[in-house]
Amino acid sequence: MNHKEILTRYVANFVDELYQSGLRDVVISPGSRSTPLAMTFAEHDSIHHWVNMDERSAAFFALGMAKQEKRPVALVCTSGTAAANYYPAIIEAYYSRVPLLILTADRPHELRDVGAPQAINQIHLYGNYVKWFHEMALPDGSDKQFSYVRNKASRAFHTAQQANAGPIHMNFPLREPLVPDFSLPNLWGEKNNGAYQVSIEGTQVIGKQQVQSLIAQLSQHKRGLIVCGPQEDTSLAKAVVQLAESWNIPILADPLSQLRAGDHRKAHIIEGYDAILKSKNIREKLQPDFIIRFGAMPISKPYLLYLQENKEIDHFIVESKQGYREPTGERVQFIYADPHQLCTVLAKETVTYESPWMETWTEMNNVTKSILTEEDELLTEGIVAKELIDMVPDSSTVYVGNSMPVRDLDTFFMTLDKKIIALGNRGANGIDGITSSALGAAANGNQVSLLIGDLSFFHDTNALLMAKQYQINLTIVLVNNNGGGIFSFLPQANENSEHFEVLFGTPLHIDFKHVINMYGAQYHQPMNLDAYRQSLMDSYAYKGLSVIEVLTDRSENVRWHKQKWQRIEEHLSKIFLKG
């Protein structure tokens, strides 16, 4: 075989094995050195290829798609800084446990470290933020090369999903000429009716003796809590609710827990816990004996304070496979077991806790919800989040940006029976790549709405090209308070007003309408609540990208939120006085 045939068959076998293993989507950023990979993926009829010219956007696009589809997505780029631009999304994927296959093309070894153009050291480029790194061998035409590439492709795909899912990095040194020959017979190699390697991963379960030990410990207590933080398993809700009902204890449900919406029962779900726990006086009256947490650490800062103020409780964290997600540094017990099985087993145990504890939480939650859902003439940031949740179509996804949007979702996302998947990039909590991630989640036809602030939107405007290129349906609710609204709630807002705006407020003074028009999107700027509702309805009837920009005032937003929280504290205090 000559070089072109060797290269073609080498890459074709690799690509086909990814398909045989289960890959269905690849996001490609154009470049020269990656030509064999890019063209071969495009040639494969059963793999959908997406072209995104901005590597940073491409990586977050793949991340959002992998989150939504719950399967690995591949990324392809050329050598040099193109690969470095993947880094933020890879970090996010690592911490949020999202399976990605990063395939970076590279110069061959003789062109490394000699001043060749577009050549950087790509070996272990992403450090500890990938589950596995492998540098592929140069195509050589040996008899074993096809089994080698299929072995590595299959291993990479399955490793990305095993245990805690995460990113995999494979580096491809490639020599010129780079253009493959697709006229070759039997291009995709021998068909074996399945993946080269098959991984069967069992479920980690808690044993009978461990259950008895745990029940003996918990039976000593009177007041417990179940907490469910960010996690993406929509089927977990019913199991967690079953446990809470059996034991008669509350569930503090994060907005990204997948518990606030769906067809499961919700009487034990306390969605207003963030607002309830903002008051130190109220927190002191709600001391639990134990907490069992599923999912990642909740978004709520008051909940973190609540944990820090109750250091002596029995605190259990459930992880299905492995991991350590406990930022308080306090004493904690980890339970490594399948959460469905754990809930089912524990619910069968005869453990019931005192009713006044559950009744108090329910009453507090009802009071909190009544204040937060009051009719308001102002189109505030909280009302924007509440109305979005109320109006999104059934069986859709809400993607939420970090900083204020996710906190407003935490406060104003009330329980409802619609099926809503709530997603966010809460691994590293950055503001970069949010729009790209939402577009990735919507790319395969899912109905997605994005709630995002102006700084995050500005940070990722390149993402809008993907919506234009592929006519992706996405509703973006852009909350524009001309800067970093979350900083207005933090101590630095009161420390030095001379420097606050420049260093933290960071006003943009940008008319986003021009940017949105440039990408051919539908644009709305409602000035009142009725107009906002109409804009949402119009956006869901529109095919393509629709952006609803809501102008708010940072100072007024702080005042409005604090007024709500103060009223909640006053009303909750009366509950304890009455008791």
UniProtKB/TrEMBL annotation:
GO terms for molecular function: 2-succinyl-5-enolpyruvyl-6-hydroxy-3-cyclohexene-1-carboxylic-acid synthase activity; magnesium ion binding; manganese ion binding; thiamine pyrophosphate binding. The lineage of its organism: Bacteria, Bacillati, Bacillota, Bacilli, Bacillales. Pathway: Quinol/quinone metabolism; menaquinone biosynthesis; Quinol/quinone metabolism; 1,4-dihydroxy-2-naphthoate biosynthesis; 1,4-dihydroxy-2-naphthoate from chorismate: step 2/7. It comes from the Bacteria. This is 2-succinyl-5-enolpyruvyl-6-hydroxy-3-cyclohexene-1-carboxylate synthase. Transmembrane segments: none annotated. Its cofactor is Mg(2+); Mn(2+); thiamine diphosphate. CDD domains: TPP_PYR_MenD, TPP_SHCHC_synthase. Residues 14-124 form the Thiamine pyrophosphate enzyme N-terminal TPP-binding domain. Belongs to the TPP enzyme family. MenD subfamily. Residues 437-550 form the Thiamine pyrophosphate enzyme TPP-binding domain. It comes from Aquibacillus koreensis. Catalyzes the thiamine diphosphate-dependent decarboxylation of 2-oxoglutarate and the subsequent addition of the resulting succinic semialdehyde-thiamine pyrophosphate anion to isochorismate to yield 2-succinyl-5-enolpyruvyl-6-hydroxy-3-cyclohexene-1-carboxylate (SEPHCHC).
